[in-house]
Amino acid sequence: MKTNCRLLQEILQDVGGAFAVLLGYIGDQTGVYAALRDNGPCTSDALARACNVDARYLQEWLSAQAAAGYVLYHPETDRFSLSPEQATTLAQEGHPAFLQGFFQLLTAQFTTHESDRNVPDWRWKALGRPSWMLLLRYRQVLPSRL
């Protein structure tokens, strides 16, 4: 039997993971991961200009991503980058290790709509477009027999 402290620790780790997924989804949708992959090490200001996003928010996002191990931070140059493994997993559409479709699916779970409950088979409808996008994004790497 788990102690209350151990259970609380596990739940908080799960909450942290959920936020990491949401932040990862933002990196995909804004094109930040792709820009880091394509441009190599960048300052947050240069990356903000390349992605047309707010520099201050991007600085905070990049810091959180570096703390989570999703991007690399180089303090000697104040630049951020992706390792080859990070680039493949976060920004290489079509690669078997690419996980953004899963980020998209998990993010969809936070955006279900009560108004769909009166629609037949609302549980599928509630998953919405991101769920179908997951299937489309992974169709090219899944075995054809699935």
- The assigned structural class equals mainly alpha
Number of helices: 7
Relevant CATH superfamily of the largest domain: Winged helix-like DNA-binding domain superfamily/Winged helix DNA-binding domain
Output the helix-strand order: HHHHEEHHH
Annotate the secondary structure layout.
Elements: H1 4-29, H2 32-39, H3 44-51, H4 55-68, E1 72-74, E2 79-81, H5 84-91, H6 100-108, H7 122-138
Antiparallel strand pairs: 1-2
Helix pairs in contact: 1-6, 2-5, 3-4, 6-7
Care to describe what's here?
With 146 residues, this protein is mainly α. It folds into 2 domains: 86 residues, Winged helix-like DNA-binding domain superfamily/Winged helix DNA-binding domain (Arc Repressor Mutant, subunit A, Orthogonal Bundle), CATH 1.10.10; 54 residues, no CATH class. Helix content is 62%, strand content 4%. The chain is globular, with a radius of gyration of 18 Å. About 5% of the residues have low confidence.
Summary tags:
two-stranded antiparallel sheet; globular; mainly alpha; 7 helices; Arc Repressor Mutant, subunit A; 2 domains; 146 residues; single chain
How is this structure best summarized?
The chain contains seven helices and two strands; from the N terminus they run H-H-H-H-E-E-H-H-H. By secondary structure, the protein is mainly alpha-helical.
